[in-house]
Design brief:
By secondary structure, this protein is an alpha/beta fold. The chain is built from 14 helices and 21 strands. The strands form six sheets. The protein has a six-stranded parallel beta sheet, sandwiched between helices. Strand 11 and strand 12 form a beta hairpin. The radius of gyration is 22 Å and the shape is globular. Keywords: 4Fe-4S, Cytoplasm, Iron, Iron-sulfur, Metal-binding, S-adenosyl-L-methionine, Transferase, tRNA processing.
């Protein structure tokens, strides 16, 4: 196989995978390769997610479809690399199940150029080592980025929730050094970012010596040109008073908090090995709202965890009613091999999980629409991020992470003061606020 000249990276799953995918693309570009569509690229990287069972099967389906599409269009066979958490979890098994050239885990993708060279020479390559943070030092400098950019500051998890594979695919909790984060944030701003979202499996567990995430945010707030800061995903156990106070004190820290709860029943939470209770979670949200009354709250929910009863599911619905989430993610429980929950005998029938998920999502959609409607009439800044479907239309994000549609003479990357004029279930329409003459 001749050395590849073009590449394509396709990422599945969470924002951390999006960040990793961006960095892999920068890594390949630094080697002189040109980005191309998947059906044309010489090497295709599938940056995978292992959280959901069907996501794993989708990877194998995508491999077959990709080879078929390329054969039909050009008659060539692409080099395929499976990266990310499926690569870490499945390892050599991927070579058995599918015709691929490279398998590389999420902590080893900085070795991708070397693995590509080996594959081009005819040697399939596997790298699922998990060295601590060494990949960041081997990655190239940040290039031109979108107005809103991701920045990984923490990786791994020590919480060992009984349903979750992250501790096994991403490793133990570890924080990137403060100086390296600040340097990358400055590079992102220099490359065009006006908003940075700090990422981590448990991002609010970031620490260095006596400093916590709130200290890091206060330092990032001093970077000229950085208008907005966000962070995700947080764990209730690591939501410190310092971080709560940061939402009160730091103007650039957006009034949005994604704080997964997963269930509303204390028995289910204990079975999940979550460190909070229903009451402690709600009291924590009370403290957050006291510090920042306009904050938008987001969460994660799992329905049908093994042994969950009808009454325990009703506890989840009543928690949703009590909180009033602006956004939320909800999923049916999916057993992951090797996790403690997968071996619990009392698995909930699929039909029951389907019905519960529909009821939960109806409640969450109701509350999201209500939150959007309650913001109509507010004036706020909107960061324009991409073109819309209509002529002259641009789409951006409000401080509360709502999609806002705006028509006007503006450019992507502008921060525009708008009045939120109309609300739908998933987006709002903004009207530019014209300053009155003095």
């Amino acid at each position: 196989m001749s050395p590849p000249k073009t590449f394509h990276v396709k990422s599945f799953g969470c924002q951390m995978n999006v960040y990793d995918g961006e960095r892999m693309a920068e890594l390949m570009a630094a080697q002189g390769l040109t980005q191309a569509d998947a059906v044309d690229a010489d090497v295709v990287v599938l940056n995978t997610c292992h959280i959901r069972e069907r996501a794993t099967e989708k990877v194998y389906s995508d491999i077959g479809r990709l080879r078929k599409d390329q054969r039909r269009k050009s008659g060539k066979t692409p080099m395929i690399a499976v990266a990310g958490c499926v690569a870490q979890a499945e390892g050599e098994e991927i070579f058995t199940r599918a015709k691929v050239d490279i398998v590389v885990g999420p902590q080893a993708y900085h070795n991708l150029p070397e693995l590509v060279a080996k594959a081009a020479a005819g040697t399939p390559s596997l790298d699922t080592d998990m060295p601590l943070l060494s990949k960041f030092g081997a990655l190239p400098s940040r290039r031109k980025v979108a107005p809103s950019a991701f920045l990984t500051v923490q990786e791994g998890c020590d919480k060992f929730c009984t349903y979750c594979v992250v501790p096994y695919t991403r490793g133990a909790e570890i924080s990137r050094p403060f100086a390296a984060i600040v340097d990358e944030a400055k590079a992102l701003v220099d490359a065009g970012a006006r908003e940075i979202t700090l990422l981590g499996q448990n991002v609010n567990a970031w620490s260095e010596n006596e400093r916590g995430l709130h200290d890091l945010i206060r330092d990032l707030d001093r970077i000229p040109g950085l208008a907005r800061i966000r962070y995700t995903t947080s764990h209730p156990n690591d939501m410190t008073q310092g971080l709560i106070d940061a939402h009160r004190d730091i103007e650039s820290l957006m009034p949005f908090l994604h704080l997964p709860v997963q269930a509303g029943s204390d028995r289910v939470l204990k079975a999940m090995n979550r460190s909070h209770t229903r009451d402690s979670y709600l009291r924590l949200l009370d403290r957050v709202r006291a510090a920042r009354p306009d904050i938008a709250l987001s969460g994660d929910f799992i329905v049908g965890f093994p042994g969950e009863t009808d009454a325990e599911f009703e506890d989840t619905l009543s928690l949703v009613d009590a909180v009033g989430y602006a956004q939320a993610y909800s999923f049916k429980y999916s057993p992951r091999p090797g996790t403690p929950a997968a071996s619990i005998v009392e698995q909930v029938p699929e039909s029951v999980m389907d019905e519960r998920l529909q009821r939960l999502q109806a409640a969450l959609n109701r509350d999201q629409h209500a939150f959007n409607a309650a913001t109509v009439g507010r004036t706020c800044s909107v960061l324009l991020e991409r073109a819309g479907k209509l002529p002259g239309q641009l789409i951006g994000k409000s401080p509360w992470l709502q999609s806002v549609h705006l028509i006007g003479n503006h450019a992507i990357g502008d921060l525009v003061e708008v009045t939120l004029a109309a609300a739908g279930p998933n987006s709002l329409t903004g009207i530019e606020r014209i300053a009155e003459a003095a």
